[in-house]
Amino acid sequence: MSTRERIVEAAFALCAERGFDATTVDDVARRAGVGRSTFFRSFASKEEVILPELDALLGAVEARLAAARPESDPNAAVLAVTEAARLVLQHYLDEGERARTRYHLVSSVPSLRTREVAGQIAFQRVFRTFLGTWLGPDAENELRAELVANAIVTGHNFVLRRWLRGLTDTPTEDFDAAMAMVRTVMPAPFGRAIAPSPTLADRARRVAADLEALLPALHDLGPPEE
Amino acid sequence: MSTRERIVEAAFALCAERGFDATTVDDVARRAGVGRSTFFRSFASKEEVILPELDALLGAVEARLAAARPESDPNAAVLAVTEAARLVLQHYLDEGERARTRYHLVSSVPSLRTREVAGQIAFQRVFRTFLGTWLGPDAENELRAELVANAIVTGHNFVLRRWLRGLTDTPTEDFDAAMAMVRTVMPAPFGRAIAPSPTLADRARRVAADLEALLPALHDLGPPEE
DNA sequence: CAGATTCACGGTACTCAGTACCGTCGAGTA
DNA sequence: TACTCGACGGTACTGAGTACCGTGAATCTG
After folding, report:
1. How many Å apart are CA B28 and CA B39, to the nearest integer?
2. Minimum CA–CA partner of A120 in chain B
3. Domain span(s) for CATH 1.10.357.10 in chain A
4. Backbone phi and psi for residue B45, each to the nearest 5 degrees, phi listed first
């Protein structure tokens, strides 16, 4: 188990015992068997131990959006943002119980909640930036991009939260339904111009096309580093 | 000038000189001619000095929404949220230059930005809560309420930001236009079922009706306290 | 008017997050 | 063996936020 993982485990264990506020960084470091310096070398703040990997997720979303080729048709744009959001949802679904305990912790601690919200804003920003460049520079288009970006993130959060609270066992289906509603809510050239809910085959085709467009850039990057 | 105001003035002056991070609470208290205890008795945190009155604004918005009587027709609901958002915009417009200097400060200081975002979430929460109760309990309606609430706040922020950055001299007209676009983006029973842009007379009638509905509750409250 | 109460304020002392800096130990390298 | 490099632990510091107490002036009360 790496140093980072040991620290995370210690932090979650202590927070479960005494709560987040009553847990000091010294406590966590001692329980993890590391020095205080090492703690802050691994995590920028006390909050980041509970909410790590936001940056990694953000990078994944950005990569997915950068791989999209929406110049040809606006369908690809909608699909790209949808699939990028699905990436985030899937990440939390894969985490399973850890995501649920984190949710309850974050819900009850203001400083954690604030930190999480800051992360969501970062996601909205990425979506907005891409949508903005795809739509072109114009005050109206900027507002459109922002509305769509926020709608996507809101829809995603809605489904994720329901799953975290145990209100649904079919999060991916819910996500499809939520995105369908989000699409009805999109201004032109998105939304109503588009077929109501693309089939799985459609989605697969789109993703394949996007991936193909991504391949040259991937080759330029060379082999993975670690 | 009250103690609070003296502290705020001192804080803005010092932040203009050295920046927010380089300004300590002791500095602000000394410049304002008060003790450190008094500072934290007047403001809960260092950030709150730069971003005060968020709570007051939130209360005004809540009161405006509580005064709406949307049971009769959904038009009143859309109008209420629009006018409540306009309340916030107007507040910043009235502040004038102070709002602009605050904007530049907040934009460049992460901790202030985080605090501001937390405030926006609070606004979204209020809008969502009212819209949710108006729409009735149902998973789909909850999502609708959230989408509409976010769209309203997004539209408001968009216009406000453009005005703060000096990109427009007609913020109220821009706000009308933005809300028109937000309306096109609303799911049923809002949005497209509604006349595109209500006239001033319409708006006045609605506000008058809402106010009349509010009167009994006002009488119950008794005379103002200060 | 004298005594009691209230309250806003200043001062002190403390906890704890976050930063800067330094010394150390072990692994890889010439 | 001698050198470098990077991860680690330890120490000391700054500054936000909290808890608590004493004081003085204003207000209430008999």
Report:
1. 8
2. B117
3. 51-193
4. -155, 170
- A51-193 CATH fold: Tetracycline Repressor; domain 2 (1.10.357)
Residue among B119, B123, B125 at smallest CA distance from B146: B125
- Whether the CB of B135 is below 8 Å from some CB of chain A: the reply is no
Query: Chain A interface, mutation test: which of B113, B116, B150, most A Cβ atoms within 10 Å?
Result: B150
Stretch (H or E) spanning B207: helix B200-221
All residue ranges of chain B with pLDDT < 70 are 72, 187-188, 190-226
Portions of chain A given CATH number 1.10.10.60: 1-49
The residue in chain B having the minimum alpha-carbon distance to the alpha carbon of residue A118 is B114
Could you tell me the pTM of the whole model?
0.84
User: Which positions on chain D have an atom < 7 Å from some protein CB?
Assistant: 7-12, 15-21
Query: Shortest CA distance to B189 belongs to which of B148, B156, B219, B226?
Result: B148
- A contacts of B119 (beta carbons < 8 Å): none
Q: How far apart are CA B211 and CA A186, in angstroms?
A: 33
CA distance A115 to chain B (A): 8
User: A1-49, superfamily in CATH?
Assistant: Homeodomain-like (1.10.10.60)
CA distance A137 to A123: 20
Q: What is the pLDDT of residues A10-65, one digit of tens each?
A: 999 999 999 999 999 999 999 999 999 999 999 999 999 999 889 889 999 999 99
Determine whether the distance from the CB of A199 to the nearest atom of strand D is below 7 Å. no
Match 């002056």 to its residue by tokens. B13
What separation in angstroms does the CA of B198 have from each of A15, A104, A110, B75, B83? 53, 44, 40, 10, 12
